[in-house]
Each structure stands twice: as structure tokens, then as C-alpha cells.
Amino acid sequence: MRIAMIGTGYVGLVSGVCFSDFGHDVICVDKAADKIAMLQAGEVPIYEPGLDVLMAKNVAAGRLSFTTDLAAAVDGADAVFIAVGTPTRRGDGHADLTYVTAAAQEIAQALTGYTVIVTKSTVPVGTNRMVHNVVSEANSQAEFDVASNPEFLREGAAIDDFMRPDRVVVGVENDRAAEVMAEIYRPLYLRDFPILSTDLESAEMIKYAANAFLATKITFINEIAGLCERVGADVKEVSRGIGLDGRIGNKFLHAGPGYGGSCFPKDTNALARIGQEHAYPMQITETVIRVNDAVKNRMVDKIREACDDVFNGKTIAVLGVTFKPNTDDMRDAPSLTIVPALIGGGARVRVVDPQGRSEGEALLPGVEWCDDPYAAARDADAVVLLTEWNEFRALNLSQLAGAMNTSRMVDLRNIYSRRMVLQSGFDTYTGVGRGAV
Q1: CATH number of domain containing 288
Q2: In 3D, which of 131, 116, 21 has the Cα closest to residue 84?
Q3: pTM given for the model
Q4: What's the domain range around 278?
Q5: Which of 18, 28, 228, 263 does the annotation list as catalytic?
Q6: pLDDT tens-place string over residues 30-66
Q7: Residue 307 catalytic?
Q8: Last residue of some domain: 198, 216, 246?
Q9: 235 and 221, same domain (yes or no)
Q10: Domain co-membership, 208 together with 175
Q11: Residue 246: strand, helix, or coil
Q12: Residue 27: beta bridge partners?
């Protein structure tokens, strides 16, 4: 199959590379000439483990290329995927469909034969029908169908998620479009991965419902963690106890500083707005959004309490600022709430993150970047574990404590046990949802 991928952001680039590894001929398109030049030179503009190797392999095989020329890429394509950004619109929480509409208009002008136009971007219910109307109005002679194919990629594990998915969701309106999509995903079908075919609206809703449910699960255990601290329970034991129930499951039940990233904040806000537009408020989702914001602020209070209720004059080492490990993504990361609050309170903040500095320098002004945790902790008054990178899971705690002015650990990911930390020479340990043990 010949595929054009419009957009080389996280979703578009990963999807394009993986489709080429299926054996399809893929052309990835982007208006940003500097990004295309980087990709043509073999450089990957995002951090995703294994993506550089897989991209190089398929470029060398002649199945993958990059261009700024949308018309040339669309000409003769069997399928054109729209994988552009749909950020939260300022002021009202809606998903901004400006880039989707613009892409649809350009695609319409470049169509030369029957093509399936596939929306890969996360979009509100009804967007694919809107895309159909935009294309029809821009080119009344175009022969095409639209399809919805939401992505379910986890940053840091995206290639594995694409190659071995829990399911592939495809929303189509007729057999002809379904046949094209089936051929595109044939390698997964042959390996018996579930391919769910639905109508357009159901496919669009599945994406929002899935992310809202996962965000709810995270927020639920974070709220339970707050109660555990009041009653003396350990949220790790509680999580294990409820996660062993097959109806609940143990994934996304790890208490921490709140969810962030490119999907959950944007998609929960969008779902809430969709509900309001249709006079059916999504009360659980709206509460999840409010509680998640409160959780991030509660982490600031937790750090302040560990620092004798005063940030002013303190030096605090923060380990990890990306929203999760194995990514350089800083979008809506808890660090963007927590670190400015420390600085605003008068603290000197040192930061270590294996991949976060490239984005973090602009987003976190006033911090001092260090190369390793021990340099960051030198003469510090507290160390805060904020992102659970593997590099931070096996620290020499005695060395860390010995370098500090006052050895206090605030473990916002519950990586270590209280006993281990205190036996290693720390004066105090503060976790999340771990009462007086």
C-alpha cells in the first residue's frame, strides 16, 4: 500500500515509521522544513526508544521518505492519514481543529484517484464527517472515503504498542474503505491482534472514553492516597489489594503527583466540553480534572512540610521533570506546577532529567541543571523524586544523603521504602499515600 502521513509529530512519525516496517511505502509530510531536513538527515526530532533505529532501517530499504510537498505525497496514495496536532483551544477547553481542517483542504486539492482519508489525530465526535464535508466542498470531483483510526500509543513504549496492540480501532462507512484499512493492518490481522471495526462516531468516542477512564483510575488512587495518609494506611498495599481483583486490574493504580502529558489533560478537557455542548455534563470527568489539579498542588504542600514549612533559602534537588520516564515530553507535566511553586517560595532548585533539558530550559526558568543526582544533591536541603526514570531507581542513597546539608527525601513516586531510605542515612522520608509506618 502507498500511504501519505500528514504530520510528523509524535503520532505521525511513529505511525509512519511503523507502517513502513509493515512493508508499506510511506511518505511523511510536514510544513516545517527544518524538521523534514532533520528527518532526511536521519535525525529524530523526538525522543522515543528504538525509533531512530527503526526509521533508519526503513529509509535504507526505500520504504520511508520525508517531504514538505503534500501534493506529491498524496498523489496516487491509497490512504492519507491526518496526524496533525489538536491542542486544547485557549479559553474554552475545546480541541482546536484548525490543523485538521487545513490538512483536509490541502488533501482535497491533491487527490487524483480513490483514496481513504484517515483521521489519526484525536478529534471530537463528528470530526470525520466534518472532514468529509470539507473535502467534498474543496473538490467536488474527489473520489474518497473517510475513516477514523485513533491511536493508543504510550510515550516511551510506542513502537511496541503499535506492533503489538491491545486492539486496533477502525471507524468506516462502507466495505470499500474497510478493505483498504484491512490491507494496511494486514500484518497485525495475520498475528491475531484484535481489529475492531465500528462506525465513525463510535471510533471517535472510544479514544476519548479510554483516556478519560485511565485518567479517572489514576486520579482515584491519588485521592485514596491522600486518605491513606490521614488514616495511617499504605497506598501501595491498598493498590495491590484492589488491583488483584480481575475486574479492576493493577495498571494505572500507582499513586503519584498527578497525570500529565500530551493526551490525558487535553482529552479529558475535550470530553468535558463535548458533554457540555450536548447538554449532558460529564460529571465524573469534570471532577477528575479538578482533583488532578488539586493533587499537583498537594505535592507542593507535601514538599513544603518536609522543608519545615519554608522554601525560602532552601536548596532543593528535583530528580525528573518530564511527565513520565522514557520521553522528553514536558506537556502538562506535574513539574510545571511543582517546580515554579518551589522557586516562587524562594527555593534554589537544581534539576536532573535524562531527556527533559531540551524542553525544560524554556519551560522552567530559574532552575539550575545538573548532570547527575549527586551533583544536584550537594549541600541541598531536600531531594524530590518526581519522575521515575530507571536512573533514579538504584541510587546510592548513602552517597546521596552524605552530600546533602539536611538529608530529606520526598519520594513522589514511592520508588523507595521508608526503611531503606532512613537506614541509608536520611533524616526524613516522605512518600505519597504512606501513612505513619
Answers
A1: 3.40.50.720
A2: 131
A3: 0.92
A4: 199-437
A5: 263
A6: 999 999 999 999 999 999 999 999 999 999 999 999 9
A7: no
A8: 198
A9: yes
A10: no
A11: coil
A12: 4, 65
